[in-house]
Fold this protein.
Amino acid sequence: MTEQPFSARARARRLFALMLKEARQIVRDPSSILIAFVLPPILLFLFGYGVSLDATHTKIGVVMEVPSQSARDLAFAFQASPYFDVRLATDRRELEGPLARREVRAIVVIPAAFDADLHKRSKTPEVQVIHDGADPNTASLVQGYAQGVINSWATVRAIGAGKARPDSGPEDRMWFNPEQTSRYFLVAGSVAVVMALVGTLLTALVVAREWERGTMEALMATPVTATELLLGKVVPYFLLGLGSMSVCASLAVFVFQVPFRGSVGALLAISSAFLLPSLGQGLLISAATKNQFLASQIAILSSFLPTFLLSGFIFEINSMPKVVQWICQVVPARWLIPSLQTVFVAGDLWSLFVKDIAVLALFGAVFLGLAVSRTRKQVA
Amino acid sequence: MWTRLQSLIVKELLVVLRDPRSRIILMVPPLIQIVIFTFAATLEVKNVDLLVLNRDEGKSGLELVGRLEGSTTFRSVKPVHSPSELRRAIDEQGALAGVEIAPTFSRDLVAGRPASVQVVLDGRRSNAAQIVDGYIGRIVSDLTADENEQRHRLPSVPRVVPRNWFNPNLEYQWFTLPGLIAIIAQLIGLMVTALSVARERELGTFDQLMVAPLPTGEILAGKMLPPLIVGVVHITLYVIASVAIFHVPLRGSLVLLYGSALFFLAATVGIGLFISSLCATQQQAILGAFLFVAPATLLSGYATPIENMPGWLQTATLANPLRHFLIVTRGVFLRGMPLGEVATNTVPLFFIAVVTLSAAAWLFRKRME
């Protein structure tokens, strides 16, 4: 008996055949496997061991204009600090050249009047720090560390003189991440980046190639509908994205010892919700460009870079100018990062997850809807 | 020979520039990137929402709240009335940090005991949280120091007076823009090159090139020069944008910047051509280029200092052309880097370029046979 081309059974068979074809293409091409399963470990490894904002052993110079007892004491405190590698001098001009050549990142100047001011009640002694402002991050870090060294030096002195109890400062509690390891939040970010790559870049490339070679038109000439065609693309890449996410998450937890305090179900729900807009974006880009070079450039620009820079994963959204903050609101990853970070280091917090998933699903519906209508229009 | 080479270069440039959409994609997005990402890529922490649970009825508790409100770091300082309210707000990321002032705060200060203030931070965003912790700590210790000085006549703590060379107000854009020039030049240079051979192989025109009466060396030069030209045009655009729109000071010599850029682009083109010769399809070439760009960017010192990396990884970054060129772009813009130093940082680029170009040429010749 022949099947009707539009019967439910025929549709299911067609869809299955399309997915199978797509899955074969994925497995056959080493580059998709590379992006889905080789790039994640590399990124995690670099975030785990290579890239760190926590500075130790920053090279600085310390200038004692007059090597009085207190100046030598303070210089010693800098030498003893794990944050600094100290190069001593008695004249700041000796170190100005090295600062300009980046051989030292800052010069701490203990002025000639330091010792005298220290013993005067009317004056606050000053220590000058000359920073390399060309690198503002390092400058602010060094500034904070230098003040810390001087504070504890002053406290130790006061205690030694029997004049003070230790000023412990405020007691701080870093919830979820007491050791303040930057690896913890970087991992959530790399999961997001990898899913954005598989969902948007890879999908955009593959579908753009079909358009470029004309095989898309060939498929359109068959009884397959535009929705079926796109569904046949979406499902395999959706699974690939989830697979890649699982590799990332397992590596993070079992190799890099990132805590996982939420549930696997929650992680899957959040990731699936994020893959919808990612895939939708990929399909839309390919249908709009029909060219692999253009598709890859637009995908990198509209998906990879925003996921990296505008999602709040490295850079605080609140610190950005208002206009950029608005742009951040339409970056899907901005709605993924808080939930991902929570499911790893805090636990299940459904009030947050449900809101984020709803927003992601909405983005997904818009992108996928646009992709379907765009593809349909091109058939006509 | 020159006319043959010339027509090859024109052909390669046409491949990239013929399509009006390609022209737009090569020029417009990088400019958008520069505007958006320059503003976004800042590690400053501003506009923070802070919660305060003040259980102290004394004068010092109010004084502390007043000082927190006066700080420019915080956009809002909201009072909360119970620890559970504080907990919930931080859980749901309604606030980055909370300050709990203990009932004994004022009394402790009078008695000269350590101040009883607790700062609760959202460790999910540990980077920003640490910076905010530092700000709050400074405000609290300033307050206790002031009180101690008044009451207990303690010697004052030395003050740190910062002075910033090259960038007196620590403008972040002055730091990010010269870096972005290098990043985007690399991205575009690599993508254009990586696609060149792979596209011909995918479309089958590579065979035509093989049978054409052209020496391999000329075909190779024809593949290498156009991305170099595109890269130089890009760098020019960004230099103009940095200076004219963002007012980044250009203190050094443009000639030195371009001189160094040529070696950087040559190294990049070598890598791109190597990847391209390795790949059979455009998809592989694009993804392969990407697989190189992502780690190279992370290991360049662009976002995080190289000094913070473990020693062996620091050694590995020496092979990364972006690392050396970043020093040059930042140096020429902000430091007015002299010839000697530009040369020191360009010599490694020269060697990397020799290696990558020879490797690419070798693989390309192998493919031609």
In short: Residues 2-41+169-368 of chain B form one domain. Chain B has a mean pLDDT of 84. Chain B touches chain A through 110 residues (CB under 8 Å).
